[in-house]
Amino acid sequence: MADVNIVQAQGFAGYSGSFTDNVTEGNSVILLVIGANNGGTMSSSSPTYNGSEPAGATMLAEVLENTGSATVYVAAWLLPNLTGGAQNLSIMVSNNFYGSPATGFAAFEISGLGANPTLDAYNTDSNANSGTVSSGASGAISHAPELIVAALGTFGNAMSEVGSPWTEVQFGDNFLLAAAQVADISGGSYTYSQTATSGAWAGLIVTLYVPPSSGSGSGLLMAGFP
Question: Which residues pair with 88 in a beta bridge?
Fold first, then answer.
C-alpha cells in the first residue's frame, strides 16, 4: 500500500513563486488557484515547474461564480511525477483583475502518489451571496490511502482556517483557503467549509489515489471525471 504524505505546503501572492525546499524526484504537486474580476469569464492554463509545463499536467476541477459584477474563480491542477531538484512554480490565469495580495495560488508537494495519480471523487460549489463557503461533499472515496485536497475562494471576504485534520494554507488577504489531508480508510465523504461575510464565493474538493499498477509512466487516470 502506498504511503501518501504531505511534504510541504505554501501560498503565493500572484501566479508565480518558489517552494522553500526543492521538490523530491517522483513526487507530485497540487496547485490550488484563485482569481477574481468584476464579472466575466476566467480560466487557468499552462502550469509550470522549473520553467516548463510538466508531462501529465492536468486540471482536476474548476468552478466559477459570476454575479454579473463580481467573479470568483477556483481551480485545482495536478503536476505528477516531477523530476525533482527545483522549487519554482507558476500558472496563467486569464482575466484576473485583482493582483497580489488578493489573489494567487497555493501549492502542496505530495509523496507516495506514484507515477499515475488517479482522480477518484470530486465536487464543486459556489454561491453569489452566502456566508457559508463550502466545497460541497466529495462523495464516498473508494480507496485508501487517498489524498483529499480542497480550496475556497471569496470575492474580498476574509475567512479563518478550519483546523485539524487539515493541513492548510491561508493567504491573499485571507480570501483564499487551501487544504489537504490523507484519508487512511475508504468509504468516507469529505467537505471543506468555512464562514465568511456575505458575498460571492467558490469552492472545490478532489481526492486522489495511486493505482496498484502505477508503474513508471506519467499521465493521470481520470477515473470518475466527466
Answer: 18
> Among positive and negative, which fits the CA dihedral 46, 49, 55, 56?
negative
pLDDT for 1: 52
In the chain, DSSP assigns E strands to: 5-13, 16-18, 28-37, 43-49, 58-66, 71-79, 88-94, 104-111, 118-127, 132-134, 146-154, 167-171, 176-183, 193-195, 201-209
Region of 34 (left: φ > 0; alpha: ψ -120 to 50; beta: rest) is: beta
Distance set, CA 41 to CA 132, 178, 211, 213 (Å): 23, 22, 35, 39
The C-alpha atoms of residue 158 and residue 203 are separated, in whole angstroms, by 14
pTM, to two decimals: 0.92
Distance of CA 24 to the CA centre of its chain: 19
CA distances from 181 to 10, 27, 150, 153 (A): 15, 16, 9, 19
pLDDT at 19: 98
Report the distance separating Cα 147 and Cα 156, nearest Å. 29
Domain spans of the chain, in order of start: 5-209
Cis peptide before 212 (omega within 30 of 0): no
Ramachandran region of residue 101, left (φ > 0), alpha (ψ -120 to 50) or beta? alpha
Instruction: List pLDDT tens digits, range 52-105.
Output: 999 999 999 999 999 999 999 999 999 999 999 999 999 999 999 877 678 999
Distance separating the N- and C-terminal Cα atoms of the chain: 27
